[in-house]
Specification:
Helix content is about 30%, strand content about 20%. The chain is built from ten helices and eleven strands. Helix 6 (about 130-145) runs parallel beside helix 8 (about 190-200). The radius of gyration is 19 Å and the shape is globular. The chain starts with a strand and ends in a 9-residue tail after the last helix.
Length: about 300
């Protein structure tokens, strides 16, 4: 079994004490996000867990506990999001420089192969156009040279709840653009070409998440965030390669069990699909206790 920790919230940043308690107890409970009365018990015993895939934007709280995970026999890697949007869109995020330092510290600890950079979501709007993303991406890539071998890129998915939050901001520049025919939009070809140049310059491989992206002479390979080939390469163990049927049609990730919960991340990023109500999410984080069996 592969544990996803978590597509639904940032466990390393906000729930590391809870996670380590569950590791020591050997299990956690997970509510079905579509039926909270349906609860499953998930083993967190090292004999049952082939790999843990962490999703995060700040791994610092987890660093102290990685030796314990190693001693217990766990295998793991991190999917680490680094983007750089205005504070109005990410009201409770740390600065880009803090996040880059955190990323590099993690990479020094466990190795560049086990820290995958996610530049996601790529939100195109009148206030955050292709040129802005080229500049941000080039800068972050330059700072991560030697600290990551792979970058996963993905365009913003216009979930209604995220679009409503973005449009609620004052000023047209904060509104997401029309994504119909995006690949034909002026500047898209230069955008993809610039990304390719940075990726090659700084020694990374690129993949997309659940979509097709291509420009002149380059189709970005479609990847898997939860990736059997990467697990085999890093840890030398084969795991089942079948697509996870619980994910979107375009997603190529293999099967995993997610132990997180929606509406528990307190960052309040306006483009986030995993949070319906940022205020309630912040309250949940404030009131949560590490002794609980579950999140959400």
């Amino acid at each position: 079994m592969i544990i996803s920790a978590s597509r639904r919230t940032d466990i390393p940043a906000f729930y590391t004490p809870w996670f380590m308690n569950r590791i020591r107890e050997g299990y956690c409970l997970v509510k079905n996000p579509f039926n909270p009365h349906q609860v499953s018990r998930v083993s967190l015993g090292p004999e049952d867990v082939e790999c843990i895939v962490f999703w995060t934007r700040k791994a610092d709280p987890m660093l102290h506990f990685l030796p314990e995970l190693d001693d217990r026999g766990f295998r793991y890697y991190f999917l680490y999001t680094l983007v750089d949007y205005p504070g109005s869109m990410e009201p409770r995020s740390d600065s880009l420089e803090e996040n880059i330092i955190s990323f590099r510290n993690l990479s020094r600890t466990i190795g560049a192969d086990r820290v995958v950079w996610r530049y996601d979501p790529i939100l195109i709007s009148s206030g955050s156009g292709f040129r802005d993303h080229i500049k941000r991406f080039q800068y972050i890539a330059s700072r991560l040279e030697g600290f990551s071998r792979r970058v996963i890129i993905s365009m913003f998915d216009a979930y209604p709840k995220a679009v409503r939050r973005l449009k609620a901001l004052s000023g047209e520049s904060t509104h997401p653009g029309d994504y119909t025919g995006l690949t034909d939009a002026p500047g898209f070809s230069a955008f993809i070409s610039a990304f390719r140049e940075s990726i090659e310059r700084y020694g990374m491989e690129a993949q997309t998440c659940a979509e097709n992206l291509s420009g002149p002479g380059w189709a970005v390979p479609r990847g898997k965030c939860i990736d059997d080939e990467l697990i085999l390469r890093i840890f030398g163990i084969p795991v089942p390669s079948g697509k996870d049927p619980g994910q979107r049609k375009e997603c190529r990730c293999i099967r995993s069990k997610d132990i997180g919960a929606y509406n528990t991340c307190p960052r309040g990023c306006l483009y986030c699909y995993a949070t319906s109500n940022p205020v309630l999410s912040e309250q949940y984080h404030r009131n949560h206790r590490r002794e609980y069996d579950f999140l959400g």
